[in-house]
Structure formats: C-alpha cells, structure tokens
C-alpha cells in the first residue's frame, strides 16, 4: 500500500511505499546562507519531518545532495557530519547541477525507514 503525507501544491512531501519513506527535495528557508548554513537548515527540516512521521535521522537509508558550487562542498560535508553520527550515515551521492533556483545552493532528497 502507498501512503502519501503532507501534500503541497505540486507533490506530497513524503510518500511511503514498501516500508520506505521517500522524501521530495528540500531546500533551505534562508537562502542568504552559504552552503554549510543551507545544509544545516535542510538537515533540521529533514529531522523534524522524520520525527513527525514516526521515524528518525538514524533510519536514513540513502541521500542525494544536489549542489551548484563544488567549491563549497567541504562546508556542506561539515554540516552533514555535524548532524549525523558516523554509524548512522546513509548511502549518499553528491550531484553537481547548474541551477536550483535563485540563491539555492543545495537541495537534498532522502529515503528512510520508519
């Protein structure tokens, strides 16, 4: 069975299928921040959404991080590692893209178990 959670105008924020929670892409609210700051904001959003749906960041399975500036990747990694303990790191891919929207430096997509 498929369950959809938190409908927006264009999608559901989370779709649950086969015991996996699939999240749509998330961006920071304060786009004046550098990539480290935007990453930290997104991680906090992910953590809240996971908690609200009965899961946690320790249940992350995979993550895709879309970034516009590889020169800021180390800041992104720093925020990521401050948020997650080594034993709970999911699989991850960092993908360079040309554009994510005005002042958007990073968008994160994750999947987790409940």
TrEMBL record:
Pfam families, sorted: Ribonuc_L-PSP
Source domain of life: Bacteria
Record's family? Belongs to the RutC family.
Entry protein name: RidA family protein
Q: Which organism encodes this protein?
A: Paracoccus yeei
């Amino acid at each position: 069975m498929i369950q959809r959670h938190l409908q927006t105008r264009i999608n559901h924020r989370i779709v649950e299928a086969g015991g996996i929670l699939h999240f749509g892409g998330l961006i920071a609210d304060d786009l004046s921040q550098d990539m480290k700051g935007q990453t930290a904001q997104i991680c906090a959003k992910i953590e809240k959404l996971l908690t609200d749906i009965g899961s946690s960041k320790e249940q992350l399975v995979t993550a895709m991080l879309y970034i516009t500036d590889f020169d800021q990747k180390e800041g992104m990694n720093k925020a990521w590692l401050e948020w997650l303990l080594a034993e709970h790191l999911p699989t991850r891919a960092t993908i360079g893209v040309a554009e994510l929207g005005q002042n958007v430096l990073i968008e994160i997509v994750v999947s987790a178990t409940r």
